[in-house]
Each structure stands twice: as C-alpha cells, then as structure tokens.
Fold:
Amino acid sequence: MKELNTKTVNKSVYPIRIVQFGEGNFLRGFVDWMVNVMNAKTDFNGSVVVVQPRSGGHIVELKKQDYMYHVNFQGLHDDKVVDSYELIESISDGVNPYIDFKSFLKIGELKDLKFVTSNTTEAGIAFDSKCNFSDKPAISFPGKLLQLLYHRYEYFNGAEDKGLIILPCELIFENGKKLKDVLLKYIDYWHLGDVFKQWFLQCCKVYSTLVDRITPGFPKKDVDAIKNKIGFNDNQLVQAEAYYLWVIEAPSHLANVFPAAEAGLHVQFVESEAPYHLRKVTLLNGVHTVLAPVAYLSGINIVRDACKHSIVGRFIHQVMFEELLVTLDLPRKECIQFADDVLNRFMNPYIDHQVTSIMLNSFSKYKTRDLPALKKYVTQEGKLPNGLVLGLAAIITFYKGDQTLDGRESNLNDTPRIIELMKELWRTNDYNKISEGVLKAKDIWDEDLSLIPDLTDKLANNLQDIGENGMLKTLRNIF
Structure:
C-alpha cells in the first residue's frame, strides 16, 4: 500500500488565498473540500494555509502526508446510497503559532491572501481580558486573528486592497457579527489606534454564515478496508455525510471572488442568514427534539429506524411538514426540499444515531426549537398542533424516569432543578397537575404556557393516553 505524499501523488500547486484557523474534521470535509472543487471547476486558483488554533493539534500529522487526505462521502442523495471518495489537495501549508509565531505572522505578508475561515467551536468566539497583544501567540482565536490582521496592515502600509474577507464557521447564530464585535473590543482594549480601526472597518469584511454537514471524522472501525479501497495509507481520512449547505450573509457580488455557485456547490449568498438558521433549527433540530422521546417510548433506539417505522414515521412526517414547516417565512418549495433532505439525512444507512443521545436537556431544546413554532401555529391555524403537543408529553413521560422498555433504563440528563420538579409532579399521579405544573414552570419557559388556550387539557390527555395505553397506541389514536 502506498504512502500518501508528494512522492506518490503529483499534487496540484496553487497560491495561498485562504488562511484557516482549525485543522479538524469539519473544515477539512467542508471548506477545504469546496476549495478543491472550485479549483477543479473554476478559475479560483487558490489554496489554504492552516493555522493550529490550540497548542494541541495535528498539523504535524497532516504535514506527514504533505497536507493531502481523502474525504469519504456517505449517505443518501436522490434516494440513492452514496459511498464515494475524493482526494483533497487544497491545503498547501500549515503553521503551529505556538512553536513558530514568526511564520504565523508571515502569513499576513502573502499578497494573494483574500479569505479567513475558522471553526474553533462555539466557545472560540469570545473576548478574554487575559489575552494580550504581546503574547506569542494570543491565547484566543480572535486575538490571533487580530495579530495577523495588524501585521498585514503594517506590512502593506494600510493598503485598502489588502483587507481580508472573514467567513467564520462556528455554530452560533450571527457568528460574523459576534466575531466582529470581539475584534473591535480587542482593538480598543489593546490600544491599536483609530487609523488601524478604520482600516479594519473599511477594508475587512466579516460575514455571518450558517454551515451544515455532519462529519463523523476518522473511521476507526472501517479504516483498514477503506485504505485497501483507495490504495493509500491515509491516516488523515475524513468521513462526511453526502448532504451539505453553506449560507453566507453577504452581498451577491462575493460570488465573483468566491465562485462556489459557479462550481455547482450548494453555497448561498443571502441578505440575512436568520431565516435559514431558523429553518435548520426548526426542521432538523426541532424534529429531533420530539422524535427522540416518542421513538424511545415506542421501543425504537435509532433515528433511522424511527423514520422507517409505519406509525412513528407518520408522526415525524406530520410534525415536520404539517406543523413546523408551515410556520417558516421562507418559500415553501425551498422548505419542502430542505425537509426532504433532512429526512434523507435521518435515514443515512451509515450513521446509527441513538435517540437517547438527543435527549440531553430536552426541555431547553423544546423551548428554543419547538415552542416558537407551536405558538406561531396556534396564531396561524387557530388550533394546537397535535404532534408538537404529543412530543412535549413524551418528554415529560420520559422524565418520569422509570422507563425500562426492552430492558433499557432512561438516563435523565438535565439540570437538577428540572429533574426534581419532574419527580415532584409525577409523585402526584395526577395528569392534570403534571400538565399544569410543567406549563407554569417559568424557570423553564420564562413565561406561563398554561395561558395558551386548551394546552393544559390537551397535554394532560396526551400524558394519560401514553400512561394508560402506551406510546404506539396513542400515536395510532391521534394520527
């Protein structure tokens, strides 16, 4: 079996146009793959230099393979099973600023550099008063980025055309706005001056983005078979689902310098990422939140099996298409396509997604993912959504804590206050009191949900049906 490096592969060479903070599975299976595609299908003609954002990382391991690796795409696309491989050649170099700070700053001197991408986890975009400009490097990601920008500003004497386009991929709403705010706070905190501040504001653009692709990472279980299939000893292989989406809140003319759409990639430049963020949270995460307890109480362990089940699958379809989707302020055709894609992702034959892994902090998830749609549905339709109410009843039933279906014991994972409240309410053995107690819990909802007409009675009836007849019979009766 061949080693993967430039001795065995004639690697393509492109000028560095992107500096990327992060070398993990997601960026390599998402952004770097897209750059690979743009180089092949357009005149983008650019490569990536990767910056290790933490002292612990695996830049060294990537360098052993001359920054090449394969992505293994798995899943369903157009109702067909996908299991394909692509060699990624888009990364040209890597830098660990903790051991070579000088090389890190020199990235700012590259004349062709145009973009910054990052994925430093949700906690990465944050201000830290202990982070100093004189540190080599600054301990925070925004601090490192600002050190690089300031060096570039000084090196090119404040040239207007040397500003960078920054596209963060951290999974937080309005990530670009939050990152820009933190950078401005550091500029003032570090006393970098009004002239540099104006250069940053006028010449650098920080755009919010929404990213979506599941990247399970290195396939330990199947790695030997995969290496035999591709013919290389690839120790940096990344597995990713076939589905992907990148929504960028930026002017459409950005597509002229970042030709993802021209390359046929599912990248959208939009006026606001907010409705797309809401669409994902509602149709993917919102469905997950009610699917998981309903499936569990029906004796189903895997999300894929729940979708295929004759009764639970009907519940999932009802919630997704008839209750959640109708509350979104986006073109219905787009939402239907997105919902169809979500169902395909749920039924990915390569991912055994345990329903119990979804049920961490279920009440807070329901509050952010499902409750807004429930209230909007009531306003639009003048009635309560059957599936969303039943989903809440399933969560409450799961939190009873004595479910032992198929020998499984429910493992409650939430704040002590919520778990204790559920215990107190279930001790009453009164479905009406349980329903009312949950809905009136302002420390969960920040409001009194019992004020929603008929919700207390409907929820109590669902709780009683589940308790006396079981989940599957309850589903049959309702749907």
